[in-house]
Amino acid sequence: MKKYTLIIILSLFFISCKKDVNEKSSSEIKGQEVAVLTAPPMVPPPITRKHNTKLIVSLEVIEKKAPITDGVDYTFWTFGGTVPGSFIRVKEGDLIEFHLKNHPSSKMPHNIDLHAVTGPGGGAAASFTLPGHESVFSFKAINRGLYVYHCATAPVGMHIANGMYGLILVEPKEGMPKVDREYYVMQGDFYTKGKYGKQGYQPFDMEKAIDEKPTYVVFNGSTNALTGENALPAKVGETVRLYVGNGGPNLVSSFHVIGEIFDNVHVEGGDLINKNIQTTLVPAGGSVIVDFKVEVPGNLVIVDHSIFRTFNKGALGLIKVEGDDDKIIYSGKTADNVYLPEGGAIQKINDVEKVALATTLEDRINLGRNIYTQSCAACHQHDGKGVDGAFPPLASSDWLNKDMKRAISAVKNGLSGPIVVNGKNFNSVMPALGLSDEDIANVLTFVYSSWGNAGKIVTPKDAAEVKSENPAGGH
Ligand SMILES: [Cu+2]
User: Whole-model pTM?
Assistant: First the structure.
């Protein structure tokens, strides 16, 4: 009698344990749906259905040439035709039927390792796909969070370095808290034979990749993906959420937005929420979700705070916030007083290794374009359009076109104090850049020949005739 009771109690205990273990994987699947995928910087809409479903995700690998910066082409290998690949959004508990297609024009086989998969290789072996083929496998999204996916075909490093990564969000059962805007931003490091900004087609450089010395570090696959007309829009008073990934293959990102504080950070894309954060680490092959309210208008600058990557390798994006000022939250400049400790200082941003001499106008413009990319684009932007309120435009600039000597002096000696360019006010400081007369001639000839400017030719002699205001600091 006693023995029987014990057995019954024990077996009941077993059954209830088993139920607990199975809970995660046993939520009921109803019907099926085709997943909405989006290209960066967009994110698919929140999932509103209350039940779990069989979700069909169909992703196509495409190898294609595209600009990594102005005038520089690179062969990217992509999931869905973009770097990073299409954003995938599923619900915790969904059953995902994954179709990986490799376009017939591909030269390589590819596969996919999704960090959201519980199973060997994250799906890598099951999804190995030759050009002109399609592989199918399925998995259950049992852990919520923001996960990286990437190609894991040998040489793995090279497939990732060519842009084969993206993000999959496994939305919690109860959904994400509502925000006004969601965007998709993913960092990656790139390795090209030519140095940063070297014009023309640039192939992958395995040696630089192994040495972990990237030529480019960019958001969303190009120095221009989130600048100029690609800046992410927002309005004063809105809440913005960024789903951030880091494809690597090598670098860890010190993710930061200049002029904002993250209200909430989902550390490493998981459940832990940290508050009031300035800079958050995003490991290679890792992610983070940040959200913040934008309170004042202006440009917020998305950077990797390992800051040479931003100003010299391309890791720069913009969030353009429009709306009314709030002088209490941010006053803007309220005074500009003279401060002159003995000597003064000249800031040398660029040490010129060697003066390249131009013999033709074409040479001069080409050399000038390189100098522009290296020494001017960080502030005046690759498209010459500048940044409202901070850096004046060089594109169709009335200030520039009116007076060549004055423009030479700006580059030679720096420029500060109030100026009006194309009807807009600027009052900031451009440092003297320490360029040689030859380089000044080249860069200004390039600028004058670009973006609807007056086409003037500046010679080294013209540049030499403009006085250097700080001879002690020049060379
Ligand atoms: Cu691949």
Answer: 0.67
